[in-house]
């Protein structure tokens, strides 16, 4: 097998494409032949030693991937050799083969392409947990999605529409706003050229959004939160812009609003049955055509460093997927 090995987490340049012995699965594990692996923001942080999870060295990055089960470890009952699976295990995906915990493998229904499957769990599970579980979003409510043209942003638009909500998508270019409209957003805000608070006010008749989905953080968090509706829910999904914002807590009092943390990894560990039920609903929505990952492009696995550079340029719309 071959894999991108991180022996020193100083950044993307330290990754090397190496030939390694193909491992054998232990109890509760499976060997997966990787067909596709998506590139997510945590995959950049983890090779820079900036992510909250710091795997022992050396490790193979690639948190999310899809492929074919080639060997099954002892005690694994729900997966068979030859089965198609998607997995979000945190590491191991940027390779030709990887060992995956069987419990974290999602069996793929027939006709679910590997590229879509590799771009599925992280963004849709996060957005489903955020909007359906944590925000208790209801039909007819209004959702503001920040960073709406990215991976989680595009999934949030689709899930909010599947629930029956109105979606305002905020992104940094007219091209990204057009993409958001094409996948169901009811209105868009280009926050490079428009004043965010004024645009929100105009689009909600002064009421503000019931739910704000924020995977960006940084400078937009406070103006967005100041615009939230009475009893609004502000979803803290991530900090793609870098800085972690500080919000004046008196605003929660004045707005009767909630600041709600969204950490799908913790949810999946603490509440595995609820997480599995959410994934099953998402697979059903995919089969019904309600949700479909937006794929920016696919690239050969060996061009991973170029893919990281493209992601770093903030030019990605949807998901980047590496293929073997």
From TrEMBL:
Kindly list any coiled-coil regions of this protein.
none
Keyword field contains Oxidoreductase: yes
Residue intervals of the Enoyl reductase (ER) domain: 11-322
At the top level, the lineage of the source is Bacteria
Keyword annotations of the record: Oxidoreductase
**Presence of keyword Oxidoreductase:** yes
Q: Which EC class heads this enzyme's classification?
A: oxidoreductase
Q: What is its EC number?
A: 1.-.-.-
Give GO terms: molecular function aspect only.
Answer: oxidoreductase activity
This chain's protein is named NADPH:quinone oxidoreductase family protein
Q: Give the lineage.
A: Bacteria, Pseudomonadati, Pseudomonadota, Betaproteobacteria, Burkholderiales
